[in-house]
Every structure is written in C-alpha cells, then in structure tokens.
Amino acid sequence: MGRTYFVEEGIGQYLTELSTKVKPYVTGLLIGQCSPQRDYVIRAVRTPPKEQQQEESLGPPKLASLDEEWITTHASQVSRMLPGGLLVLGVFMIATPELAKDGQNALRKLIFSVEKSLSKRRLWKPAEEEVSDRAALQICSATKKVVCRTYDVQDPKSSAKPADWKYQNALTASWVALGCTVNVNIHIPLLATSPNHDLEKNTKNGLNRWSKQIEDSVFLINGQVKDEDTELLEGQKKFRGNTQPSTQISDVKVLTQLCQGASPRSTATVQVCSGSINLRGAVKCRAYIHSNKPKVKEAIQALKRDIINTLSDRCEILFEDLILNEGPQKKSFGREYHVLPQRLFVPVAGSSVMLSDYKFGDEAAGEIQERFVEMLDQPVQAEDMHIAEDISTVDICPVADSLSDTEQAQLAKATLLLKLQQNMGLVVAAAVAVLASIFSFNYFSD
Question: Which of 14, 86, 98, 168 has an alpha carbon 20 to 30 Å from 207's alpha carbon atom?
C-alpha cells in the first residue's frame, strides 16, 4: 500500500492558479513533514523563473530543457527558511498534455537531484527507521488530472509507487511548536601543520564535532525528561472541532554533556595551532510537529536538527557574503570579527507554522520581503517579521602567510616536542608490551 499525503486545502487553489499560467510547464517544491503513519504537505512553492528563460522558450517545448541546477539551488535556499520538522518532501510539475508522458521521468530525476543536493549540506544523518519516500506530483494543465507517486531516495534503483493525495482544511491548526535558546561558544583550532587554512572547511569540521554534542544532549520538555517512546501530548486535553490556528508551544531546555565519549577511556591529542575560529552567541531554535499522536522522539529529533541546521546555515550565508564582497582569493592577516545573520520568523496566513529567514544588520526589510516572494512565492508585511535573537559573532584569528624567525623557531620546537611526545608514547607502549611478554613467558615457564 502506498503512502498518504494530507495536503493543506489552500495548496489546491494555488496549483489551480498556476495551471492557468503554465507555458508549457512549471515546476516547484512540496514542503511538509513526514511521519511513520502519514505525510503532511503544508506548502507548494513554484520554481522562480530565470531571466533568460523567456528567450529559451522560443523553441519547441521539451522537458529535457529543465534546468536541474536551478531547481536544486532553489531547494537548498528554501530548506534554509524552514524550521525544524519541515523539509522539502517532493517536487511537482504542471505540464501540457503533450509533455505529460515524459513528466514522471523528469520528476524522478529531479527528486534524486534535490535530495543529493540537500544531503550534502546536512551535518546529521537520517535515522534508519526514517521515512525516505519523496513525492512526485504531476498535474495536467488541460484536464487538471492529479497523479501522485513516491520514490525511495535511499534506493537509486527505486521504482514509482502510487500515493494518495488528500486535501484537508486547517491542516496545521493544532500542531505543536517546540522552542529553545542554545548558548553557543565553539572554539575551532586552525592547525599550524595544515597545508592550507580554508576557513569554511575548518568551520564545517568544527560544527561537525559540535553537532555530535547536540545529538548526545539531554532535552527537558516543559522542565521534564520524557521517555522517547511516549506520546508528546500524553495527558493533555485535545480540543476537537477547532479550526483556528492554536499552536501549543512547549519550552525546551538543552543540557549538553561536559564530557563526550562512548567509553570511559579517552585519549588526548596534542596539536600545534597558530589560529582559531570562535563562534559565540545565543541562537533561537524552533520546531513543529504534527498532532496525530506524535512521539517524544520525533519532537526532539526535529528540534535537534533545527539547532544544528540554523548555525550551519548562518555560517554558510556568512562565507557566501564574504566571497561576494571580498572575493574568494582574499586573505586576511589580522584578527577579524564578523556578525552572523540574525534569525527572524514570519507567520504564514491560515497556518500556525512560522517560516524563517536570516538577516544581516545592514539589510533592509524590503530585501527580506523580496526574498520571501522569490523563494517561497509568499508576500509578507514588514511588521510581521520578528527578529528572534541578539547578535552572534564569529571571531577569526587566521594564520599569517609569513612568520617571523622567532615564531618559526617556536613552531619548529613545538612540532618537534609533539613528535617526541608521540614517539615516547610508542616507546613506552613497546616497553610495556616487551615486559608483559617476558613476565608471561617466565610465569608460564614456572
């Protein structure tokens, strides 16, 4: 039996309006949430048109002309604007009858391309039991016929499976929101022995280590540690017949462990560093979860991923901005401070779910509004944009290309000492092994 997609009723009207403008096809993303029992689609977003697309459309229409890179880039940008619990869970295409026969092949290709692009950016791994089916929705612009199929993105040879597409009014009216503030103070060393000092790559490596701390953290929901397999809404009253958005908000505290490691034994590593990156600040995180008997595990997982994603996305945005403004070849020899973009949340009409974006201090509200229209096809009012937090900073102490004679001598000495320490460790270990073998030989000889 195929999966069932419960779809916000307003999406049907949005897709109908798009079908009247289609020339000869239009593609877009489906945004929502997966759960073991059913999936939810809360928004459909068309792919923004490219400037040169009008010139290309003068020839005969072909799905082979689909700009795969443009669509996957759009998916990456949109994924940054989604709070925890929401993801790009499929793609749609509205096409003329002449193109319909090639539609599913084009959609299949897009689904795997989008998933590959999104998975590259993630600092977390999907759970084994996680739903890996993604939706391919095809609509005929003439007959309005809707065909929904799914593909398993974990299986490159996956074939299409039929799926149900059901509209529902006020789909997110009683969804649960979880919010927390996470204090960040991450120190990322830049190794002196490294051949190059790619700040972005080093930052990502440091965030990878930090993300494991978040994964291992303890989460208190409304001051309580709850068993992961219990229902999130257990003991809470459920009001039926209420179609007005009335989000239940849960306050979450995140307790990170001081000591990491699966085993009681650990090894310390001595590294020679001549620079560092420091991320400091407090980030606001938010996740949404469906109200159909959600498990505590689902809610915590959604919030964990939002914590990891929001810091990773901000660093990506900062480095993109630095490349645009300073160029990729720019090298800095002095200490630098950069301000990470602040997160803001924007309500969506008719929904209890809020979407988010990131704003630099010098960005005007108009630029944010333009981005929402371009990326999410969603007009927003300036007064509806709520900046959620104070400023977070990146302190970069990069390595100089040329060191003084004294610094070179100190670095050489430190490197030599490090090698001596490592070699001494090997010598001691070898000596212990020899003594142990002599002892066991004598013992068993006796």
Answer: 86
